[in-house]
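Q: Could you fold this chain for me?
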Amino acid sequence: TQLTVRYRRDIPDLFRYNAFVVISDGVNNKYGTLFTKYEFFYAWRKVERTDKAGDGIDSLHTMMQGLFRKDRLLSVVKDFIYFPDTSKSEQKIVCRYPQFFATCRLYENILEHSHINIHGDGKGGTYFGATGCGKSLTMLFLARMLMRCRNLASPTIVLITDRTDLDDQLSRLFLNAKQFIGDEVVSNVETREELGTKLRGRNSGGVFLTTIQKFSEKNSLLSDRANIICISDEAHRSQTNIEVTVRVTDKGLKRTIGFAKILHDSLPNATYVGFTGTPVDSTIDVFGGVVDAYTMTESVADGITRRIVYEGRAAKVFADHSQLEAIEEYYRQCAEQGANEYQIEESKKAVTKMNKILGDPKRLSMVAKDFVSHYEKRIEEGASVCGKAMFVCSNREIAYNLYQQIIALRPDWERKVGSQDQMPVERIRLVMTREKDDEQKLRDLIGSEDDRRELDVAFKNPESNFKIAIVVSMWITGFDVPCLDTIYIDKPLQKHTLIQTISRVNRVYEGKDKGLVVDYIGIKSNMNNALKQYAGIDDTADNVENIEQCVTMVKDELDILRRMFHTFDYSQFFTGTPLQQLECLKLAAEFVQSTEVMQSHFMGHARRLKSSFNLCSSSDAITANEREDIHFFIGVRSIIFKLTKGEAPDASQMNRKVSQMITEALQSDGVEEVAQVNANTKDLDLLSEEYMQRLQKLALPNTKVKLMERLLRSVITDFKKVNKIKGVDFTKRLNALVQRYNDRSDNAVFAAEVLDEVASKMAELFKEVHKEKKSFRDLGITYEEKAFYDILKEIAHKFGFEYPEDKLLKLAAAVKKMVDDKSKYTDWANRSDIKAELQMDLILILAEHGYPPVPQDEVFKEIFDQAENFKKYEQSADDVPTKESEPEVVHFFKDSADASVMMMAAEPFECYKWNRFDDNIVDYFGGDKTVLVGCYKGKKYLDWILSNRIYNVRLGNTKGSAESYAEIFDKTSILVLYELGKSNKLSVFEIIGHKKVSKEELIKLNYPNSKPRKNYMIFNIVPLDMDVAPLEASHLIEKLVDINANNSKGTPVFIEP
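A: Sure. Below is the predicted structure, expressed as structure tokens.
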């Protein structure tokens, strides 16, 4: 936030030529871009590609040597920072270190093996990257470097994928990167003939995306150029079959030419590069050796992907143990045959037998019941970040039948739900393509291709009602949903497809510690073998945990927490009345906060307990008593988080019953729910006597101190937005009290004394802030002028000179007016000419008011800092887009029935013109100024106007309001003010500015009307030393009543030249 919000807002020039940013505390060092969320900042963990990744104290050295070495830094800035051509949000992507090393190694290998060299063999190399590590971006960085290579003379790049969904994902990236690649010709190719036409029609350049299936057995030459680079995505599938195969069938011999052979015959001199997350020997035969590798273990260690937890539930859905044995036999036969996925599926007999077992109605009923129970328990316990789950079925028929079984159990999941901003959609959907023989109900359920595109967007949206996707083959590869944290497997998967499928849950998302794989078919053995074979993992425990490990960790952490609470009796939490349960939670939070060490240890162990419990919350190995204890400790942790931080990080991931208890605990005893205080303090006067009394009633001292600290910080932060110098002083004093609290002794007696002392001094600090916020009234200046008054007084004190109080007040008002005049330009803080004028005007004002000689640079710095501070927060409050409309005449509307309203209004009429008044009235104001004539009702309103130096007019189009476009207010420079019913008692003010405000902002200024309307225009005013006797003698107000009788009710009137 400091980088992406505050620095960017306050010092935008700093980022005008910024490539990327680095955050460091000396031990943890990460880099990203100005638009990068914190969770996507990463460390640069290697100096050279072959080095071992470095962490801890050495990590800063590693980053400096690995990223900031001159040649390396120039290379990153030149080729590894990507801006999309178009984007709905601000995006800028800088490479991660594995992407940098992989791109550079592939680039060098391609140049070495390209057919442009005499001895080139066209094998550009294989890149082995863990699923989810960002291979698509590595391809993009590689494409840019190849396009800029002189030796390749602007090559043509053909990107080849194995599946349509992967092609869609890759094409979206490349089609939006034409500027980055450096070629305007980037397109999808629909047919082999179209690719041939595009290749034959050019000698260089162009990026074309296609799928390997587009190459039929027509193996005619497409191009014999040597500067063609074919980059294959997921190069472990049908892109490696370069031989002619012969199979014996019932009809005789069948000769098949592989797609890859056709491709290689069509582009004989191209260089072939393979990207894969699951390499096999045939991949290396076609594309060359592994040039660079980035394993799942490295990806998890770098925080680029999450670890996976395995939960086996096959035994719960197979009534007949022999069925499990049949499935194991199926896998064994596949392994013995060495078959790949496509060959296995051709074994109709084996597949039919398998589907008969998996699709058995009794078994599907058990699967549906177990799934619903498992899913709902995770939701109830808050174990899922967004409730997103994917269920993988063996075939379309089984998927449809399972869907019907689930809907029979939970019919409301079929109901469409959606907010105003979201498409109404069911909680559960089938995701597959239609087939011509589908029954009408199934066709309607599946929907059209456009429907599937909408489902794609909805499932990726964390807020969408679409939570559960039942799939067969769609979405299990190449489909990224970061918030997806659970996948249920009920399909025979193996090898690379199995790795791809379970990797759907390994993406990084806020609040997601790990992904969960729930197995209904018995994939564990195959999964372990696949991880060893394809993911470069010797010990699968490094990347995939068993649910039993999570259960063990839960029990271990629970044992530690129970020992910590051995002197605290929390049995009331389980056996007591609701009130006793609430009291138990509060007392437990107080117990934990007794010392900093105790609190730190408890919060750490409770966090680990919650993280592990999220993954095994549905396990039968956790007893009911253990579950209750877990709820208790997580609830205590949440209360402490809310007291100290404002909101628990896992507020949405908590048992619902406990969450409600926490809310009630924080609302009892007259204490507002603390989480709401930071969110909106406008409707709550934290400095009021009533609120202070409620704080003093708190019987738990640690809770009281933590709460008072949070509220004080909120109040001081708000105060600092207007008066920086006083706000900084209050912050220092609060920090000193907090330090005193944190340093308290472990001895109960001494600790109690410190708690009383700190609480007492915090209460005093509350009162001082409250008093300071109102001090401007006694001085007769505005709240904002007081900020400049304090600066001037502080400087006078610092340099040891006296300056009369009355002069100081006038000088503060003059400085405030001067700052307002200069800071009306939007970019005033960045314009040196305006800052120079501001400094010169300040020097003149100081001289004019006889402010004793002091170092003017220091005065200017303090004044300018305060001006920036004030305008920054003023602008942030005003930065609300408004709908543009045509200029309109000022209209006024009938007065409100509420007689207490300060300003009344009359029926519609245009602004008065000067020619409707006597010459002496016109001459009084010179006849060239727009004047506002307004009234007030009684002394309390006059006192408020004078103390705040503002006059307000209601805005809107409702009864009793005045509505206007900006130009009338911009022209108005004089205010004539009178008391309602006393037309001969006038005051005249100069209007120096105006601003639209809400009723909440007026309430902050202690507006005397108890029922203000929604919006107002306030005018900043300065008293004019004018003789108003001629104006009173001319009976201005009476003449207004003559023109329109409604003015007797106090209508504010604008008089134009």
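A (continued): Residues 748-779 form the longest helix (32 residues).
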